[in-house]
Amino acid sequence: MRWSQAFIPTLRDDPADAEAASHRLLVRGGFARQLMAGVYSLLPLGKRVHEKIEGIIREEMVKVGGQEFSLPALLPKEILEKSGRWGVDVMFKLEDRHGAAACLGFTHEEIFAWIARELRSYKQLPQIWFQFQTKFRDEERPKSGLLRVREFMMKDSYSLDVTAEGLDYAFQQHFEAYRRIFERLGLDVVAVEASSGGMGGNESIEFMIETPAGEDWIVSCAACGYAANVEKATSLLEPASDEAGPATPEKFATPDVRTIEELAVFEGGAPAEQQIKTLVYTIDDAPALLLLRGDHALVEQKLIDGTAAETLRPATTAEIRQALCASAGSLGAVGVEGLRVLADPALQGRTNMTTGANEDGFHLRGVSIERDIQVAEWMDLREVTEGEACPMCEADLAIRKTAEVGHIFKLGTVYTEALGASVQGEDGKNVPIIMGSYGIGVGRAMAGIVESWNDENGIIWPMNVAPYEVVVTIVNPKDVESSEAGQRIYESLIGDGIDAILDDRKERPGVKFKDAELIGIPYRITVGPKGLADGKVELFRRRGAEKRDVDVHKAADIVLNAVMEERR
């Protein structure tokens, strides 16, 4: 490809709305253009990178026995109703001319389970099925370029087994395949325990990259390798040393005190760690009290996972007053009957605590959890904070901002039971197929690579996914000797299977160099009259900005060897 004929619309300035490095550089480098919020067109450079990422993923899926499908993006309402996921928040719904309801596919668990009904016997299992398919999700706040979009290409794969042990094996196969994929993509990922959320199932692992553009926080331990999403993370707390306190709780006036912080500085109050925070939530249409230590924050996903609630939300002001006859800021669970009380284990065994008295302007001190509060369930609800002790080795935990680039789930029989996908077991009885689900967003992986590999001059693509591996830059296309030498080098590289582009544009050398660095081509061979006078061309390596002069007749072989060494 000649650059003069290619569509590579680089920009000198960052797009005004771009905050993430990947958003800024993929637009500036001419890889993508926004059509509307959360919807992007891939331009030729972006398409080349996208296809290389797909190719790596496809190779690794085939290695673990995957068979490739291509399923529709338009899904019927009837199948989604069977699993209970018709009408989820992210769904794009529509009707055809006959009034039949459908949606644009946001995921394909149900459809693969529907096809799996054609399996009849355990002898046909295990199976691994996968596809590359466009997904559509009505994200509330699409942002950060390709990191959070409404339309994107995903590799989703599904394992089908007849035993839990088979699922475990398929899950491990995918875990190892994902490790290989991300290594080949140049991504340094952290595998973390995660919530399965609306996908269902009982176990999932996210693959995360550290980036300031991320939306997820992970908790990790450098000493032993423990890592988990904050929605799943736990830690060890210093044991509390409470005083015994009074024989019964004591009520005291706290006028105008409405927060944990205000009570901590109020005369006669208590430090946040000696307070009980009381929250009121509506769980499956019934009010419930949530109790945490005063200095701890609720992780709502832990509550969702722990209760398996279908609907869950904070109670309204009116609902709170109806349940406890007081306003938020004066709430407590002492003496409360008829309401479900869920408490975080950090409160177990605590005595001489302070909490609201369920009367505006009053609190109770000297509260003993076991003596004074009827806790229905102890449930991990709190958010882990920096510096707390690792649950595995007790070293200090760190918290990092990350973006998810892959997620694997053990679904179990959630979808196969709903869709009627079963096989005859070895004993002759029908059993539901056991599924796993495994996803990688291709565009998100592309953005993740850029987040990980960039500098002040632009993108630094790893060799495996670079749009072009080498650019041959002719300093002065009007110089016949330079043009002919550049053409020979370019043709030699193409003949050896190298992705090369010939920059023959009638632009200033500085413009050419800046464009090549911006779009991140790993190697540049610069051919100019000055170097050729000594039989030399300049070889520039994008990563590390290393320059050296090489013999014009050996340049193609030197670059060929360098490219082959970096390919994995």
Structure characterization notes:
The chain has 568 residues and is of the alpha+beta class. It folds into three domains: 3-233 and 399-451, Bira Bifunctional Protein, Domain 2 (BirA Bifunctional Protein, domain 2), CATH 3.30.930; 250-378, Alpha-Beta Complex (YbaK protein), CATH 3.90.960.10; 468-566, Anticodon-binding domain (Rossmann fold), CATH 3.40.50.800. Helix content is 26%, strand content 29%. It contains 15 helices and 31 strands. The strands form eight sheets. Strands 3, 7, 8, 9, 10, 11, 12, 21 and 24 form a nine-stranded mixed sheet that branches. A five-stranded mixed sheet has the order 16-14-15-17-20.
Q: Could you tell me the radius of gyration in angstroms?
A: 30 Å
**How many structurally independent domains?**
3
How is the CATH topology of the largest domain named? Answer: BirA Bifunctional Protein, domain 2
Low-confidence parts, pLDDT < 50 over ≥5 residues?
Answer: none
CATH architecture descriptor name of the largest domain: 2-Layer Sandwich
CATH class category of the largest domain? Alpha Beta
Q: Mean pLDDT, rounded to whole units? A: 95
Major beta sheet summary: 9 strands, mixed
Under CATH, the homologous superfamily of the largest domain reads Bira Bifunctional Protein, Domain 2
Number of helices: 15
- Number of DSSP E strands: 31
Seen as an oligomer or otherwise, the chain set is single chain
What is the terminal-to-terminal distance? 24 Å
Percentage of helical residues?
Answer: 25-40%
Structural class: alpha+beta
Shape: globular
